[in-house]
Structures are given as structure tokens and as C-alpha cells.
Amino acid sequence: MRLFTLIRIFALISACFWETQAMATDGLITIKSSFGPQDTMTRLETEVKAKGLTVFAHVDHAAGAAAVGMTLRPTDLLIFGNAKGGTPLMQQAQTIGIDLPLKALVWQDEQGATWLSYNDPAYLGGRHGVGEPARTAIGAMTAALHAIATKATAP
Is the dihedral of CA 19, 24, 28, 33 positive or negative? Predict the structure, then answer.
């Protein structure tokens, strides 16, 4: 448990020093995008696929709202991952399957800024009590998500 606390602290410190504006709250990492919602989602999906991950679903919440006669600023969810990365975590604690596969949300705030949010893998590991054997998988997921998010949001 102590290791995951250290990983969370490192992730939070890293977020503070990123070139892009970022927030980390309760296991959610949020990065400001230099692009609009559609371009950010396209860049995100392209980068996810470039990393060899599988896109399982794309949920356009704004389109869902429009379908029932309601409005919602752009809010798109991408669900992605692979069994090689997630299985070691589920071998340690099957309940982490509720938080896997990975998800990233591209959304637009009331001022028109675009953001990309995703769950911090270290937070998820701590939430589900995965142990030392899953440390490598958590580290790989953390690094991959950081790289994907940075490429999707930075010019």
C-alpha cells in the first residue's frame, strides 16, 4: 500500500510540472487540450491505436443527450486497453475489473476549453489493493496513459 501512495504522490508532482495545464483530484487526472473536442478525441483514438491498444467503445454523451431532446457540451468517452496490461491487475484483485478497461473522457467546459480526463492507474491499484506483483503493470499503464494524453492534447 505504501508503494501506491508513493506512486500517487509522484503522479501528482509530475502533473504539476507538465507543460500543459493539468489537475489531479481523487485519482482523476485532467489535462487541458490545445485542440477542440473533436480534434482531441481524434488524436486520442489515433494515439491509443498507435500504442497497440484496442478501442472497445466510443460513447458520445452529447449525442445521447441530443437523442432525448437535451443539450450537453461535447462529452466523449473512449474505452480502450488490452488483456496483457489488465490481466496482471485482475490476477491480484478481480474487483479492478470494474475500472478496466481504461477510459478517457474528452469534454468541453462552460468557457469552451477542452479537457482530457482519465483514471490514474496507481489510484485504481490502491483502490483495489493490488500488491507488489502488479507494480510493473501499474507503472506501464501510468507511463502509457501519460504519453497518450500528452500527444493527444499538446501541439
Answer: negative
